[in-house]
## 1
Amino acid sequence: MGKPTGFIEYKRQKTKEQPPLARIEHFGEYATRLSDKDLQTQGARCMDCGTPFCHMGIEIRGTAAGCPINNVIPEWNDLVYRGQWKEALDRLHLTNNFPEFTGRVCPAPCESSCVLGINEPAVAIKSIERSIIDKGFEEGWVMPRVPRTRTGKKVAIIGSGPAGLAAADELNQQGHSVTVYERDDRAGGLLMYGIPNMKLEKEVIERRIRLLQQEGIDFVYNTTVGVDITAEELRAQYDAVLLATGAQKQRELRIEGSEGNGVVLAMDYLTSVTKSYVRSNFEDGQAMNVEGKNVIIIGGGDTGADCVATAIRQNCKSVVQFGKHPKLPNARTEETMWPKDPSIFTFDYAYEEVDAKLGRDPREYCIQTEKIVSDTEGNIKELHTIYMEKILGEDGFHYFKELPGTEKVWPVDYVFVAIGFEGVERSLPERFGVELINNRVAATIKDYQTTVPGVFTAGDARRGQSLVVWAIREGREAAAAIHTFLAKEVVSL
Ligand code: FAD
């Protein structure tokens, strides 16, 4: 640690953001870097705390505490403080294949675990991480690393989300020949067509893909495994297969009238907008457009928030977001709103934007959707709701009770359904004959191997909808397991 008094002398500063009214005029990234000098002082705030929980990467009741990929944060904080940026980049790349993704969209469990956070704002770890890698690309320090030798072993990776990409990178560096199959027209999974461009510029993903290609990884696009190429063909052609297909089966809204025109799954909306943006800057007219429309988003998580931010950029007339289904005991109320700490999470941006443009917070809590009413042509026009009260039952659990007299009719043209994901799409795992557990591909955390030898799984497909950083961790660990599996095969020949 270079400056023992840094945490006393300097205040926290994080990545700069364009003001809300300016940034909703476009779909480009709105966060920009601090100056090198400011970043050095931010690095100096890391106080050599002795037990740096920031890089522990443990899971407590499903919530990450510390960095899931064990980034050695205090070390690169110190290197940044000393102005040794290239060394900081090398240290960062040791544990993180894609810091340019996590530096932009990770909810930064490292910052929630920062010891300085006990009585001061946490070290701005995420901003420092992003700056190290962005500077690395600008300076030309991130170069293709082509493996010197090849093992002769072939691995097929199905799915090019962060889990598949991390595994591909690791396995390629071990000298195996890797082919990534992707059903979409570009790589990145939810990084590409789920997370909106303003949070993660798509060129940032494409830049990394070009690098991986130069390093020898093959990408096969527009190819749905199980349809365009069979599971049997893949198994015959490759020594190991990794299912990194995500958990993208969305939960549907099932209330009276939900079949009306204008009720759309959130991911279909987000995907149509991003596809149209990256292919033609919207000139193809393929993006679903809510300009001048009344929009309601059902679902209080980050997918819902991304719909809010997209709708406000399209100049919608109104936008409202309902919190979790109030009949669930863990439904969000004003006291348990999400995100808990807006300085860290990545989707409070949407609420600031609506507030700036329309002068209100779009979020509504403890509200029950009753029915949707359409006009004679089948286009939706009203959403009927009733507010709920949260009460504590005799059994100690919370329940929700309808509040008589709070019925409300909302004028609506579009309802975006963002009420979560049900797990993996079952057809592919079934074709490989692997077992599922709770709508996820069954595999142990130890070796990521499914119930079929030689077939592995990682990322959301194994753990359910999660975070980019967990997908990277799983991809890295699954790659290590596949490497061991392939090495055993060589030994037993
Ligand atoms: P995915 O990213 O889902 O990738 C799976 C890939 O497999 C896809 O490209 C898919 O097309 C492909 N595939 C599936 N089946 C086949 C097949 N049969 N053949 C060929 N290809 C196939 N996390 C964060 O950390 N921060 C955020 O801000 C954030 N925002 C999010 C916003 C939204 C709207 C959503 C939906 C998720 C968000 N997440 C965020 C979660 C994060 O994106 C996921 O946890 C992560 O992408 C999972 O990675 P993965 O590689 O397991 O799967």
## 2
Amino acid sequence: MTIISIVVPCYNEEEVIIETNKRLTSELNKLADKRNLKYEIIYVNDGSKDNTLKILHQLEKENLEKNSINGKLIILSLAKNFGHQIALSAGLHHAKGNAIISIDADLQDPPEVIEGMLEMWKEGSDIVYGVRTVREGETWFKLITAKLFYIIVRKLTNCDIPLNSGDFRLMSRRALDIFNSLPEKNRFIRGMIPWIGLKQTPIYYERSASFAGTTKYPLTKMIKLALDGIIGFSNTPLKSAYYLGFTVAFLSFIYGFFILVYSQIKGFPVQGWSSIMVTILFIGGIQLITIGILGEYIGRIYDEVKKRPLFIINDKESRFGN
Ligand code: UDP
Ligand code: MG
């Protein structure tokens, strides 16, 4: 029997959660009958300050009363607001299914796309990620910052993060087990998934406006997410100190040399100025380079402590058994 897990992080979603649950369960019940599968929906309450948790408990009670044989509701309630990426990770850790789908609670990702995702999973994809074609009902500011976010993160990291993809995706059991084994604390899931590799396929859909409520990703959280992406996936900022150090040091050496020669030929009106300048520039340059070298070591320590597996095997074949 195939089991599908749906993970829904929820933060202050009281206005929409009932509707979300209705659409999700009706779609999943349809699929359950059609494809002979069972499902579990894991709602992760990320320390909501409104009635989200109360409504979730009510939904669970109703579901029990209905005695649904197709699926069950699971509620995970975090002790405080840990943020979207952590809430999602918590839900993913508890998912038991053969295929696991993560979806936003605000109905911006239509549950109707799930069927297509399952289709691609059956055809052998380990990860099927949603790519939105239009983003209705979002301000131009959100659109531009989102676009900038992708451009910068893709440029600075060596991770091939697909453009316009969010956290609406399906993962096979195998992909999720690998994902769960990545122990890093600053989790930038959109980068970690492409990092895993395996067979990844996009599925295109139209992103609708939030059913209710506003984005819980204000600019500050977007910047935090971008920083997690950049710093978690590249040592470029650390290395930039190194390059900057070398450039500045190089330029100051030239300048120092120039001052030295100039003062010998023309002479400076202030006695001792050139020797002080040369000393300052020289020491400044040495300091920057040393900071760069420290950065280089810290970068390596950082790579080590992330404790990511060295490689991930997709297939292993052997002709002689074993
Ligand atoms: N979310 C969460 N914790 C937070 C912020 C958001 O669990 O601290 C959830 C939220 O309930 C939603 C999903 O993460 O299900 C995406 O949030 P939102 O819709 O605000 O993001 P956007 O659509 O603007 O990318
Ligand atoms: Mg949203």
